[in-house]
Write a structure and sequence with these properties.
There is one protein chain. With 549 residues, the protein is mainly alpha-helical. 43% of the residues lie in helices and 5% in strands. Strands 5-6-7 form a three-stranded antiparallel β-sheet, covered by helices on one side. A hairpin with a 2-residue loop joins strand 6 (305-313) and strand 7 (316-321).
Length: 549
């Protein structure tokens, strides 16, 4: 921003008059009268919005927007936009004039990916606080307005959005594109919408290629800045979707991290690239999101970030996960690795004590020197070859009972994060009597205690129990136990009925807590929980990313 541009903008209270007070309705009409008497704003799209939302008292709608703009400035006529008649804060002075110059020179179609050539404002983009930043609730409400099938791209200053009837929103606001969910930030991310949405809203509504090109590049820069600020302030990495990360890389970490002279900041650039590389490693699956949510079910934003730490070495900066997200194998920090070794689980402790597997007579993993057939231990005859199984022809009733059942083969063992608890929520309304009786007889527990839980909870907890036991058995099988049967007996006791009963009963409260939190989030969306008619469930599954997961 040039010095001439800064002096050309005057505080609204000095140039026009006092700002309206939202809770003092007596100030609305006089403030609106002063606003309409300004030069060049009578036919603006901003005033048409105020009159369209409330034709009787547009001053009240005007007050709702100006209540969020205490630092509003009156720009020069060259910098005056039709979408908003003021400049929200001092660092945005001159933006509309720059965008107009860019739009006049833009004659190409919208490129496939954004680039630094479409950035209207020059660097730096990582600016220190100036006291004019929007509060976090304003940014959160702007993000909420973009969600769902009828979402709109709304600026954080547009406090009148909630007062606009649903039938009229398409006339005054920018409809969120169909591709927007692939580039949306997680809940709780304080990323400001691009400035072009504020000062060229009408151009975006008309589908202007220049405006949308600037919007994409500005969104990539804004989200990259939020990613860096989240690490600096909270030591977390925000779980951005893959396509949004592609936009950030397309604009360029060098350009985003540039200083006021346009020179790249190697430290900031290395930090941004390290965070992006870690995001490429983290799984972007519902199971991983469920794993994060279970760590703090009461926090709606917990599914959108992971605690990380940045290490700088000879090979540059490297971001490492700084919280234990087992069973996922991720690039963990040294503190997490040492904590795992210090407090091993019962299976891990038992496996650590047994380092050699007795595979041959006499012990050891080397076969004796006597003659043996390859693939079989010494003195062990090879297994006889079984005759081939001939399956009966279709319709052969005589041999239908002799059909060979199919084998279920798993390529790899599942982890706790791979158990889709949310898929079992549809069983919540089913009576658990049959499932509870079967589990009670096997585990030796009271059936009345299990009947307090719906069938979905029992099935989900049973899946986690199977995973827990299978992981321990798999870890033991991959090692070689020492001679003796003491440790082996301890390992086998872990899969006994008493151990299974304890593990199962411990899983139930966690499963119930996670399911109740999911039900609460589904109810906040407004479409209810997925226990309704099949048509509703099908519609919800069609848009899984936007329903509180």
């Amino acid at each position: 921003m040039d010095a001439t541009e800064e002096t050309a903008a005057t505080p609204y209270a000095e140039a026009i008059g006092p700002l309206p007070v939202l809770r003092d309705t007596t100030t609305h009409a006089p403030a609106w009268e002063r606003e309409t008497s300004r030069m060049g704003v009578a036919d603006s799209a901003a005033h048409a919005l105020f009159r369209g939302v409330d034709p009787i008292s547009p001053g009240t709608i005007f007050a709702k927007q100006m209540d969020r703009l205490p630092h509003a400035l009156v720009p020069s006529l060259a910098d005056l936009s039709s979408s908003i008649t003021v400049v929200r804060r001092r660092r945005e002075v001159g933006y509309f004039r720059r965008f107009s110059s860019f739009s006049e020179a833009f004659h190409d179609p919208v490129p496939a990916t954004p680039s630094a050539l479409e950035l209207v404002l020059p660097p730096p983009y990582l600016l220190p606080p100036d006291g004019e930043e929007p509060p976090a609730p304003y940014l959160t409400k702007a993000r909420d307005a973009r969600q769902g099938l009828t979402g709109y791209l709304v600026g954080w200053h547009q406090g009148e959005y909630s007062s606009c009837p649903l039938a009229l929103r398409g006339q005054y606001y920018v409809k969120a594109p169909q591709w927007w969910p692939d580039y949306e930030v997680p809940y709780g991310v304080m990323a400001e919408p691009p400035l072009v949405l504020t000062y060229a809203r009408e151009e975006l509504r008309r589908g202007d290629p220049a405006a949308w090109s600037v919007f994409r590049a500005g969104w990539a820069v804004s989200t990259a800045v939020a990613l860096l600020q989240a690490y600096d302030e909270r030591r977390v990495v925000l779980l951005y979707p893959p396509r949004l990360r592609d936009w950030i890389r397309s604009v360029g970490a060098t350009n985003i991290a540039a200083d006021a002279r346009g020179e790249p900041d190697d430290e900031v650039e290395g930090k941004l690239l390290a965070l992006l590389r870690l995001l490429d490693v983290l799984p972007h699956t519902p199971a991983f999101v469920e794993r994060l949510t279970n760590r703090a079910p009461s926090r709606r934003d917990r599914a959108g970030w992971v605690s990380v730490i940045l290490e700088v070495g000879r090979e540059g900066s490297r971001a490492l996960v700084d919280e234990d997200l087992a069973p996922y194998e991720l690039p963990y920090s040294t503190a997490v690795t040492e904590a795992r070794l210090a407090v091993p689980n019962p299976w891990g402790a038992a496996v650590a004590r047994r380092r050699h597997l007795v595979r041959f007579p006499g012990g050891g993993d080397v076969p004796p020197t006597s003659a043996y057939e390859p693939g079989h231990p010494a003195s062990t005859p090879p297994e006889p070859r079984l005759p081939p199984v001939v399956l009966p022809r279709r319709g052969d009733n005589a041999e239908r009972s002799q059909r060979v059942p199919r084998r279920i083969v798993a390529a790899d063992a599942l982890g706790h994060g791979d158990v889709p608890d949310h898929r079992f929520d549809v069983l919540h309304h089913l009576p658990p009597r049959g499932v509870a009786l079967g589990l009670a007889n096997f585990l030796g527990v009271d059936a009345d205690e299990l009947e307090r839980y719906p069938a979905g909870y029992l099935v989900s907890a049973l899946c986690h129990l199977v995973v827990d036991v299978s992981q321990g058995v798999l870890s033991w099988c991959r090692t070689v136990p020492e001679e003796g049967s003491t440790d082996l007996e301890g390992l086998l006791n872990l899969v006994g009925r008493r151990a299974l009963r304890d593990a199962f009963t411990r899983s139930l409260p966690r499963v119930r807590e996670g399911a109740e939190d999911r039900r609460r989030r589904w109810s906040e969306v407004g479409d209810g929980y997925p226990e309704g008619p099949p048509s509703r469930r099908a519609r919800l599954e069609e848009y899984p990313s936007g329903w509180g997961r």
